[in-house]
Write a structure and sequence with these properties.
By secondary structure, the protein is an alpha+beta fold. The protein contains 10 helices and 5 strands. The protein has 2 domains: 161 residues, no CATH class; 143 residues, Histidine kinase-like ATPase, C-terminal domain (Heat Shock Protein 90, 2-Layer Sandwich), CATH 3.30.565. Strands 1-2-3-5-4 form a 5-stranded mixed β-sheet. The longest helix has 82 residues. The C terminus is likely disordered.
Amino acid sequence: MPVPYLRPPHRDDVLIGVAGLLCGVLLWAVGLHTQGGRPFGGAWVLVPLCVMAAMEPLRRTRPRFALLVGTLALIADQFTLGNLATVVMFTDLMYAAVLYGTPAAARRIPVVTVLVTVAVTIGFLAWWRTPEALLIGAVTALVAFAPATTGVLVRNHRDAAEAARLRAEQTALLAEMDRTQAVTAERARMARELHDMVANHLSAIAIHSTAALSLDDPGTTRDALGVIRENSVQGLAEMRRLIGILRDASDDGEPAAAPTLDGLGALVTIARTNGLDVTLDASHGPVSAPVELAAYRIVQESLTNALKHASPGRVTVAVEQRDGALTVRVTSPHGDRDGPRAPGSGAGLVGMRERAALLHGTFDAGPEPEPDGGKVWRVHATLPVDPADPVRSGTRTPRQGDPA
């Protein structure tokens, strides 16, 4: 049968046992005893003393066993002349059994000491029939109940301190998680803003610069350079606005203004300048700033995708507010296109979907057939006017080959 692993005794416990033994031997050597007229005199008093001192190193590792043997040693000490060091070490074992023992032992030992104290007091009163019997009960309470109660108080304080430490660690962990989530969310927001602000202008620059390099026509080259310059200036302005957002203020100390739905007309004008045939139909009332920004960015990214990927034809933009929600629809011809096109990474669709999800709205994008046999690429987003009121109509995962 395997022997259970025992932890080595704590150094302080060994020192307590050695100090108690030396003090007890010194008291015996000078003839100081706690009682007289016992059947075992002389050096017999050292036997309970040595047993009690031997239990002190086990007060942390095996507190219940140490208390049990210490109790037997204390009973044996009553048949000798008695030693104060034996009694003091027993009180320490009682205290340690409550403090270092199991939770069940910590609950039971104080109750047992109360019952023993009451039983000893009543027993000696019935035997002696004198008031002095109450002193025996008081000594019993001082030796057994008092250290047990002290152990309970110290253990409860220790457990409360440990619980407070764990709560503090959990609070710190939750704070770190919140900080990490906030940083991640802010980085995602910055990535969406950067993509939506710059992608449209850079796509136009890439397409028109490719056309200028491909066609040996001074007029075409001049027009392309004009579009490139205009988009460069507008892209630079957007970048400055983004820096203003990151700094929470623009150069003049005022907060950087976010795009609104009133700017859709200017956005469509830019798209027409870049070569798209765009029509705009907008009918909406006042909506919150987050909804306005999300709708504006969805239209902006949809027009960027149309510029990069759409076939020749008309692009329609419809923004409508109805039934407590703002609906954004953008359609563009879908199919093979001639001429230069800018590569896509899929980040645009991800950003639009994230914007809709953050407002508890819905987003769907993909090719759809037309009655005349052709196909259009349709972007459909529904944004609650009150972002706290989610619209539950599902979203579609982008398919392979979807444009950015």
